[in-house]
Design a protein that fits this description.
The chain is mainly α. It contains five helices and two strands; from the N terminus they run H-H-H-E-E-H-H. The radius of gyration is 29 Å and the shape is rod-shaped.
């Protein structure tokens, strides 16, 4: 058992090198920062991925009326095929046209 404790002390840096805990912070302890960065990356990914269980894709599309964000494959209003340039232009024209606004809304003086 003594050999294992000595091995553990040497490899974690807790043997008194040039001072107390110097070996730890310059050896094994320096890996704690790397572990924190890996944890932050995993947490960030889990925050933005699709809310469908087991789906690894990034959830770009909010589902209306819910707090969920899902990927293109799981969104109820999206199809499996990608939109063409014509589809995107048609959607843009429809959005620019929008609903007809009454004249008094766009007039500088407003309703009289």
């Amino acid at each position: 058992m003594g050999w294992f404790l000595h091995w553990l002390a040497v490899h974690t840096g807790t043997v008194n090198e040039s001072g107390p805990f110097y070996g730890f912070w310059s050896g094994f302890g320096s890996d704690l920062g790397e572990l924190a960065l890996i944890g932050a990356i995993v947490t960030g990914y889990r925050h933005v991925n699709c809310h469908v269980k087991g789906c690894p894709r990034i959830g770009h599309h909010p589902v209306e009326g819910t707090p969920y964000r899902v990927c293109r494959r799981h969104h109820p209003a999206m199809s499996d095929k990608f939109p063409t340039v014509e589809d995107i232009h048609a959607a843009h024209r429809a959005a620019k046209k929008g609903p007809a606004m009454p004249d008094y809304v766009t007039a500088p003086g407003g309703p009289e």
